[in-house]
Amino acid sequence: MPMTFLIDTSRCTACRGCQVACKEWNDLQANKTRQRGTHQNPPDLNPFNYKLVRFAEYKENGKVVWYFFPDQCRHCVSPPCKEAADSYVEGAIIKDPKTGAVIFTERTRLLKPEQVEEVISYCPYNIPRLDTGTGILAKCTMCNDRVKRNMLPMCVKTCPTGTMNFGERSKMVALAKKRLAELKKDYPNAQLQDPDDVNTIFLLTEDPKKYFQKVG
């Protein structure tokens, strides 16, 4: 049974504990950044941030409303990025048969620039990022090293609010459906994002488009 994240955005307070924990566990270097008029920092995913809490701000009914979205790889059930990479470099992207984690290996550096662009374009969620220094494509690993030792992914272990959940797919799908039914009472637009296609299921309270705003 593959493993699955359930990310319940209704419980996210944007503490960014998951973002920091991911960065620390993976020993990712700091980003040079600046204030862009938003709390979202850095402005986008990059080779040194596998996880990013996105901030979207709106004025609704005279009130400021925030939507928080802890963005990361979806670990697709049938990953199109792997399909693209397999055409060029065997083993560049692998899918762990036990956990379902989609892993970008160091062999991604063997992809030619146009092939890298194709692999990135195949991702429907715009997740992979190229480390121009090493030539390696990078993204969330599902903390596969931890999971194989019966430990939680670092982002899940760190989350203080119950936003981040992780376990066997059947259990996470059941929890997702239960939480969705509860949220529908107060949030009629609540929905699960592509639950049949991914192993990172997002539970949203509103239209998915509301969670993404361009950061200048």
Tell me what you see in this structure.
The chain has 216 residues and is an alpha+beta fold. The protein has two domains: 3-71 and 145-211, Alpha-Beta Plaits (2-Layer Sandwich); 80-140, 2-Layer Sandwich (Alpha-Beta Plaits). It has helices spanning 17-25, 80-86, 113-122, 144-147, 154-158, 169-184; strands spanning 3-8, 52-60, 63-71, 93-95, 102-104, 129-131, 136-138, 164-168, 191-193, 200-204. The strands form four sheets. Strands 8-1-10-9 form a four-stranded mixed sheet. A hairpin with a 4-residue loop joins β6 and β7 (136-138). α2 (80-86) packs antiparallel against α3. The protein starts with a strand and ends in a 12-residue tail after the last strand. The mean pLDDT is 96.
Compact overview of the structure:
The chain folds into 2 domains: 136 residues, Alpha-Beta Plaits (2-Layer Sandwich), CATH 3.30.70.20; 61 residues, Alpha-Beta Plaits (2-Layer Sandwich).
Topology:
Elements: E1 3-8, H1 17-25, E2 52-60, E3 63-71, H2 80-86, E4 93-95, E5 102-104, H3 113-122, E6 129-131, E7 136-138, H4 144-147, H5 154-158, E8 164-168, H6 169-184, E9 191-193, E10 200-204
Helix pairs in contact: 2-3
